[in-house]
Amino acid sequence: MSRLQVVSGKGGTGKTTVAAALALALATEGKRTLLVEVEGRQGIAQLFETQALPYEERKIAVAPGGGEVFALAIDPELALLDYLQMFYKLGGAGRALKKLGAIDFATTIAPGLRDVLLTGKACEAVRRKDKHGRFTYDYVVMDAPPTGRITRFLNVNDEVAGLAKIGPIHNQAQAVMRVLKSRETAVHLVTLLEEMPVQETADGIAELRGARLPVGRIIVNMVRPAVLDEAALELAGAAPRTALAKSLSGAGLGGARRGGLAERLVDPLLQQAEEYAERYALEHDQRAQLTELGLPLHELPLLAEGMDLAGLYHLAKELRQQGIS
């Protein structure tokens, strides 16, 4: 597995949930994982049922086998202060700039600078080593922007490196792109078995490949359980109404008399079967389109009870069972 795992997806597909579950799955058996949030929504804190994350790396969960998950919500302004201190040793001058509003102005007037800082901070965590020369984190998982912005977000350092031909900004941008375009990185796309998310996933993969960014896996989220297979659907569509009423009666749902409960249940039952057949055909078609994209395909179930911390651990287990660990 690549050490930087970037998770993107169309809004509403549950990419933050998948990123959190992936971080837990990768932390299994004593590994250390850093889960990075770049959009300022505090979605990670909500999932792990903890307080809002500060701009510091904080342990938020223990994975099966004793692994640890740390989390970081990157603040662009504070990341810029780090950058200024790292390359220009501004110290107190950097803090003075913040008080004057110069940093907020810089990150607002130049949106590309904001993305440079966000990706740069994540890549720094990937490269960081302790005093013994070991990587601080085995994996870094980034809850990245949605599919429509992901390529430009990850590729912004290429643009910056082209604009700044020399100096620390150029060197930093090149160092970040060396990580993002290497085998150390994998960009995963989260989708649903619906037309718009699947199409956006296909478009996002094409854009990432066009920018020579490493595409990883497709993760289909919130997959509803199969109730009927094709054979059962065909039987339901072909069975005579009288036979269905008789079967319902035999199951204890009303008597066999004409106009009884069993007979009145036939129409609603057939309507539900028809609706399910339509959904089954749509999902079968969308799954086939995703398969044609030629990437490893994983599916996570829809949790009927809703998403909570227990559900997050359940999804992490599902990912491990599917070979992501």
Explain how this protein is built.
Helix 3 crosses helix 6 and helix 10 runs antiparallel to helix 12. Helix 9 (195-210) links the parallel strand 6 (185-191) and strand 7. The radius of gyration is 25 Å and the shape is elongated. It has 13 helices and eight strands. By secondary structure, it is α/β, with parallel strands linked by helices. 53% of the residues lie in helices and 15% in strands. It has an eight-stranded mixed beta sheet, with helices on both faces.
SSE blueprint and pairings:
Blueprint: E1 4-9, H1 15-26, E2 32-37, H2 43-47, E3 58-62, E4 68-73, H3 76-88, H4 92-99, H5 102-109, H6 111-127, E5 139-143, H7 147-163, H8 167-180, E6 185-191, H9 195-210, E7 215-223, H10 230-238, H11 241-250, H12 261-291, E8 297-301, H13 309-321
Describe what is shown at a glance.
This protein is of the alpha/beta class and 325 residues long. It contains 13 helices and 8 strands.
Mean pLDDT: 83
First-last Cα distance: 8 Å
Write down the secondary-structure element order.
Answer: EHEHEEHHHHEHHEHEHHHEH
Give me the number of helical elements. 13
Helix content: 40-55%
| Broad shape | elongated
| Largest sheet: spatial strand order | 3-4-2-5-1-6-7-8
How many individual β-strands?
A: 8
Radius of gyration: 25 Å
